[in-house]
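S.,

As promised, the (2S)-2-hydroxybutanedioic acid run. Input:
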Amino acid sequence: MKFRSFAIGLVVGTFSIMALAQQPIVIKFSHVVANDTPKGHAAEYFKKKAEELTKGRVKIEVYANSTLYKDKEEMEALQIGAVQMLAPSLAKFGPLGVKEFEVFDLPFMFDNYDALHKVTQGPVGRMLLDKLDAKGVKGLAYWDNGFKSFSANKPMQTPADFKGLKMRIQSSKVLEAQMRALGSLPQVLAFSEVYQALQTGVVDGTENPISNLYTQKMHEVQKNLTLTEHGYLGYAVITNKKFWDGLPADIRKQLDDAMEQATRYANQIAKQENEQSLEAVKKSGKTQIYTPTAAERTAFKKATIKVHAEMESRIGKDLINSIYKETGFDPAKL
Ligand code: LMR
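Predicted complex:
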C-alpha cells in the first residue's frame, strides 16, 4: 500500500515537473501609448515574431495605454522585475540616472529620420544603450515615433505666443529648458494624465508627435496645432538585465532576432503613421492646423538653440559634439 502511494506520488510529481517545464516563459511588455500607434504596433509585431520564433516557449503579454503602469512606475517595476520589457521615450531616462539620453530632446537637433538613424543605428546609439547596464537594465533597440509639434488653445506662430503658457512636458531637463527658452512654464506630467490636464486647464498646451496627440484625443481639447517639428520623440526598448542574461541562450538569440525584425518594422511605419494621424486630425475639424513659414521656424530655432549650450554640463559636451559630427548639424548655422 505504502509502495503504491509512493509510486502514484512519483508519477504525479513527474507529470507536474514536466508540465512546469513546458510552461512558457512570460514576458510582460508594458507601455503607455495606445495600441494604434507606432510603438503599439511595433510591440504587437514583436510579440508575434517572438512567439513564432520561440515556437511558443515564450509568451509576450503586451499591456498598452498605461493599463499596468504609468511612466515613473514602469521604470521601477522593470528594475524590480515586476515587468520584463518596456519602451519608454528617450526623454524619460533622467530619473533612472542616465541623463545622456536627453541629448535626443535638444530642440532642432535632427533634421529628419535619416539624420537621427545615423545616431540610433550607429556606435553613439549603442554606447548610450550600454550605459543602462549599470542600472540593471539592458538596452535592446531604438524604435522611432517622430517629430513633435506644439498644441495649445491659442494660435502659435512666434516664440512670443508661448509667453506664460503652462506646457506639459515629459520628465526631461532639456525639455524644461526648451519650454523656458520660449517663455512658457513647463510642467512634468505622466502621459496618462495629459488629456485630462489639458481638458481641465491644469496645463494649456503640450508637444507631441501627431500619432500621440490623435490617439489620446488631445486634438479634441486643443484648438490649435502648429507643425513645428522642433524635436524628436523616440524610444529605447529595454529589459531587466538579470532576467535577460538568465534566459536560455537559444531563446535569447530567438528574441534578439524577433527584436531586430520588430525594430525594422517600427522604423518603417512610424513616419507614415504620423502622417495618417495628421490627416485624421485635419478631418476631425476640431483643431486649427498651422504650418509655420521657413522664417517662422527659424525664429523658433533661434529662440531655443541656446538650450544646446545650456545643457552641456548635464548631458556632456563631447556627446553633443559627437552627434553634431554624425549628423552634420551646426548650431551656429541658422
Ligand atoms: C509622452 O509622455 O508624451 C510620450 O513619451 C509618450 C510615449 O510613450 O510616446
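Residues 169 and 188 are 5 Å apart (CA to CA). Strands lie at 25-30, 58-63, 85-86, 137-152, 166-169, 185-188, 206-208, 224-240, 288-290.

- D.
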